[in-house]
## 1
Amino acid sequence: MRPGRALTLIVALAAVVGALVGCEPSAVPSDSGSGPLIVVSVPLGVQPWVGQSISRGAELAASQLNLTAAPKKRIRLQIMDNGASPSIAAANARWAVAHGAAAMVTDGTGSQVVAQIAAPAALPIMVVFDGSAEVVDPDRYPTVFRLAPANRFLSRRLADYLAEKVKTVAVIQDDSAYGRDGGQQLVADLDHDGIAVARSSVVPVDSSDLSAQVQSARRSGAQALVVWAGAAVLAQVIRAARASGWSAPVYSGPTAEDPLVRQQLAAHPRWLDGTVFVSSRITSEQGPAAFEQFRAAYEARYGQGDIGLSAQGRPVRQPPDWPMYAYDSVRLLALAFATGGQSTGAAMLNAVQEVSVVGANGDQRGFGAGNREAVSSGDMYLARFQELRFAPVTDDRLSTTLPPVAQ
């Protein structure tokens, strides 16, 4: 990975960024200038935490970059709601190609069809949420990059952590691409670490009652529940387990951090206590200063992230850790655009693999030739909930080195 170079293209949002739900390919961009157009395709309505994290991170990066830029070199963002629908995501990708976009930033919805649409135009696609294995393949999808933790890194880290605690678990995953891929990765990693899976269930992503599946897991003799699913399913699992009196520990992937989990358990906030999830660390090994600087800028623009709940007499606030990935992506893409001679297509695609930036939390972000993952496998940590807030666990070597993040 080459060290970061001075950003010659510095540019902020020249026009108000609009959210277009199911935007038609004939729609016009939010700015008619001649700077690089970055299309942001996210599930704003269906998964608001995911969608807002990405759109706001991208907006903040663009606004900062544009502050000192010449008007004709300002980044243009077009934010489009993909509704978590692969067909809408595909339409958004066709719109991006038709309008000469320099790049696309997305949660990963419909990544395979989006990659096929992007390939002939050599349009770089930056995935900043979905960790599924099928998303990233340099040979099949040469235009797709990921700046977010991969499921295989997360599941291995979680399995290694569990190996010191339990011998038998039950796994519940939802039927989304995220749930299926993460669940499969997890089962393989649990087996690798000698942990028996006593019961494994795949449930619909829109499940409203998972009592039967939880009771089946309990009867299997599992010592713990491991859930790889969206926030709503995770909340349902915890509710069903605790309401039935089952106190087995619950472990999950990064969607546990979605405020929706806490909001759906608001009537019984103690039920979430002790739940552990794996994610990519919020602060870098250099310390919390870089993240706190990013957080100050983010909250000055969007507020302090109150989730509508209180604990210990104080509002609970969500730290802007996931917006960092979209923020870093836009900054990296802006540098690639400048480095590639302000060209789109192949020149831009090649430049993405030649540049790097210092990320919002102080970690280096970039790709080399043949590399499509910008988040290191060594950066995964584990956090535990207590009274609606989470903090690094105290029984894991990497996690204990990380400072708590104010919430």
Note: The two ends are 34 Å apart (CA to CA).
## 2
Amino acid sequence: MQKRTIKTEKAPAPGGAYSQAIVAGNFVFTAGMVGVDPKTGEAPKGIAAQTRQTLLNLKATLEAAGTSLENVVRANAYLRSISDFKEYNTAYQEFFARDPPARTTVEAALAKDYLVEINVIAVIPDKAS
């Protein structure tokens, strides 16, 4: 099986030795993304705004790989404070209103002042379907 590295300027550039995403077979595995606006390099204030920006970054990365948020099958989310869960979940649901992927959400120590980090696994639909 071949693998392909995904790079897009529509999502923040990696801050270390990792790729934004890797395509392996019909699967896309993203790195953990945070809510940094790729145009400004800044993260918005608040958990809801950071969650939305994080998911926009993931959306752009998945589209560069040939798929979409609609094809996400698994999500892992890391919150600086689990007490932000309700507000995070409300923003998250805006992107996965129907048939949401399997998900784990945990509290974790995050870099800088980031409030949320999310990584996903998505499928690339078969073009013959």
Note: The chain has a mean pLDDT of 95.
## 3
Amino acid sequence: MALMSVAVLVGFRAGEYKVLQGLSQNGQLDLSMMWKVKAELGKLFLEKDKLVDKEMTYGAIEGMVASLGDPYTVYLPPKQNAASNQDLAGEFGGVGIQLGYKDTNLAVMAPLPKTPAERAGILAGDLILKITDKANNIDRETAGISLDEAVNLIRGKIGTEVALKLYRESKKETFDITLKRDNIVVASSELTWRETNGKKIAWVRLYKFSEQIYKDWPIMVDNILVEKARIGNSYGGIVLDLRNNPGGFLQASVLVASDFIDKGVIVKQASSDGKTETYNVDSSRRKLLDDKMVILVNGGSASAAEILAGALKDYNRGKLVGENTFGKGTVQQPEDFPDGSGLHVTIAKWLLPNGTNIHKVGVKPDVEVKYEVPKDETSTSAKATADKPDNQLDKAIEVLLK
């Protein structure tokens, strides 16, 4: 009924109150107070030109949805909804931050690899308190802000600047970072071979579970199998690096998990209607069942990345090394309306094979290792490259080869 009410409200004017009132006679929705307040505003408010019915209607719906207290359930007026529908797997002008919430505070879910945010040292878990863009007259505190509004404010023309006021728990203070927007290309994965103590190790970095992973992952698996056959006993196993992976398509994480787990449930999706959908191992995969592996995670491992890490941990498929994951375990469904507005609503929660929900909790590593910034680095980001010191990766390889 609530969803129907939102759809009905869009586009109605004050003169059609009787129609709306008729829809509310069952007692589920009483709009009389809203209309009383609107009438008072019409009589008393100083700047009458700002009393625009359509904008006030959008504001009323936004407030109704916000009253649920779930920062991931939001109503978006047409402009914000259009921005949210941009494909994050493609290219856009931005700074390379995947956004989420810590409690109700806007937070960095993950800095994307090889982007201005990562190069500036922004970390997963940093709270974003304020967004400033002087060229566009933006000076916005983030209390109560929706994800889509925040994305819209942070993105912009390539080459322009946006300033963020951040809070990091380890610093116990706020600090400001100015970022120059760039063309952001979100890669899906990368495979690098590393040699340690006479063993060759496949370092597999999964950056995001985008549509591209459906194409890239099977090719990567085949490449690992070819090299594994070529080097024989020199093969040391796989380090599956999910650090700063903000998630994406759930089915993509199931695809990856299916190459490491023989059979069983990968994840369950418990919906608001009481139904539970189960995602099992894809029996057509299962190509890396015998490979030794370690999974690297940190506070930027979120959503579908946490599902993958949690499933591998539940099946004792490999040790988790690194830091506690982000804790995003709910599912949102977008609904678009004819006027261009939209509703993003939380419809389900994800459950690991053992039945636990990771929302606001995350997945705890078996071996906890905090990232250490190399002494010659000014950045504090846990960015990973093949030629720079990385204590978390070193520990993962050590655990793998034991």
Note: The chain has a mean pLDDT of 86.
## 4
Amino acid sequence: MSTIEVSVILPTYNEVGNIVNLIDAIRKVLDNKRIRYEIIVVDDNSPDKTGLLVQKNYVKQPSIRGIIRKKERGLATAIRRGIEQSVGEVIIVMDTDFNHDPTVLPKLLQRSKKFDVVVGSRFIKGGGMANKLREKFSMLFNVWVHLLLGVPVHDCLSGFFAIKQDKLEQIPFDKVFWGYGDYFIRLLYFAKIHGYTFAEVPSFYKNREYGESKSKFIQMFKDYAYTAIQLRLGKIQ
């Protein structure tokens, strides 16, 4: 059996209007590059039946799996579940609202050959956001996190990244995969203190075309700031 080169983890909640298009876009990009992959969708029992749609549409595609969680909830624990079910040499995590462009996947994988963690960054040349107000606030916040924690990337909130499976296994899951997007700050921090190597590729966030964002902007930044401060003070070790 051929080795799976990459496992793409897609955490979902009420993304019925996006998920099939996204999966098909991912498949097209990876198939064109002849990359051996699996796609794992972890759905938190969405009222709009996102998980059921995945299971129905791809029932004859063993490389695509839909997991529906009936009891657990939350972005970070959904990602953890997907990682624990994966067998790829490299793990890629991405959002399911098309903020994260599937065409970036080959670039993440290419850089993963030389680096342990590769981040899709909005704040390097070629990256950015269609929502310029959010881009400004996000960039300023990322500068603060970068200075506070010394994490060697420009986008500490990206959530679009590739990491080698064997490197990921050395990171303490219980200390990282809880909460919402703040998990990514913790992941980068622990990767840094483990001495992992980092790289970035440009990522541009388009505006959402379908559905509503689950992010509550002000509360999100409060939670992220709290996480960064706790790490800096050594409260999470």
Note: DSSP finds nine helices and nine strands in the chain.
